């Protein structure tokens, strides 16, 4: 086993162990992947101010996200097909998050179901909802979340139409996956993954198959989902979800100040500055570039979080310094999961927390609540 020191080490190991089509699904963007790359590289431009001769004892990275205690301003983002990175992947990620002390978010397009997570974590988790045309199916899914003690609903707003992701098209990543010769040969080089998948019954979209009318297997699911992502989604639909749900509501996919103001008016509890990991509108700004203007406009009225490009605890600290009261990590979690299952997710969280804690100390702070943009070198970070 190689020595794991950072998230990149986990990515390299995951690339070796996860079948190409599923690795590429998580580790790619749309079109030219320019926004996908910028999400990560724009963090590197932001420079930190090192301070010395400061008492660095008794440090705390603890905070709250929508009133929920969390060990650091990080939660696990919803990622579709997580259960194809590693057998029962969502369950492993949820258990790692619970033990570490941060929230876990389950995707609508997960392999493990809402009920699977509820049965295996003992901790309230969050659920990410994609709005479909079938409102009856949506209402039932919300009721299932209530029954499973879900503590917050994350409504993703930027998937009314699906961005063109070239690697998925080339790999034949469809529902069900297309068994090309290249895919079959690649699977033969992943015995650890194949053994894991052979040992689980969870190989389909657990939140949909058997829960939606006429969706009984992967083939019927494919035809249903092709028709169901709702391009008509608007703020009236968001009000409908809020009324049906009745609990904490987080709106994910906000990249514009005007949309942020509309989100505040909708009565949401938090918004996530997010470009869907660069998987939707290629050519959009990075999330960290878009963050300051949105914080300036609505940060005093609503919790503003961000996701996209976070690969280290330093990235988390930079986002916090620019006004984000929370962050979501997707790919960093996926790399850990694909590399080593639950232990890999735990390792990813440990790496991020350690980097966050130590960097905060070098910047002269012992409590993250006291950190602001003064830890950043002027002229190196985006402004409103």
Class from secondary-structure proportions: alpha/beta
Known CATH architecture: Alpha-Beta Barrel
Nearest-integer average pLDDT: 94
Estimate the global geometry from the Cα principal axes.
globular
Domain count: the total is 1
Helical percentage = 40-55%
Please name the CATH topology.
TIM Barrel
Order of helices and strands: HHHEEEHEHEHEHHHHHEHEHEHEH
Q: What is the CATH H-level superfamily?
A: Aldolase class I
Distance between the termini: 45 Å
The value of Rg in angstroms is 20 Å
Number of strands: 10
CATH class: Alpha Beta
Task: Kindly report the spatial arrangement of strands forming the biggest sheet.
Answer: 3-10-9-8-7-6-5-4
Biggest pleated-sheet summary: 8 strands, parallel
Poorly predicted ranges? none
Estimated share of beta-strand residues: 5-15%
Our count of helices gives 15
Describe, in plain words, how this protein is organized in 3D.
The chain has a single domain, classed as TIM Barrel. The mean pLDDT is 94. β8, α13 (287-298) and β9 (303-307) form a beta-alpha-beta unit. The chain has helices spanning 7-17, 20-26, 34-44, 89-100, 114-121, 135-147, 166-171, 181-187, 191-198, 218-228, 235-245, 257-265, 287-298, 313-321, 331-362; strands spanning 63-65, 68-70, 74-76, 105-107, 126-130, 152-156, 249-254, 270-273, 303-307, 326-329. The protein is 43% helix and 11% strand. The strands form 2 sheets. The chain has an 8-stranded parallel β-sheet with strand order 3-10-9-8-7-6-5-4. It has a two-stranded antiparallel ribbon with strand order 1-2. The protein has 384 residues and is α/β, with parallel strands linked by helices.
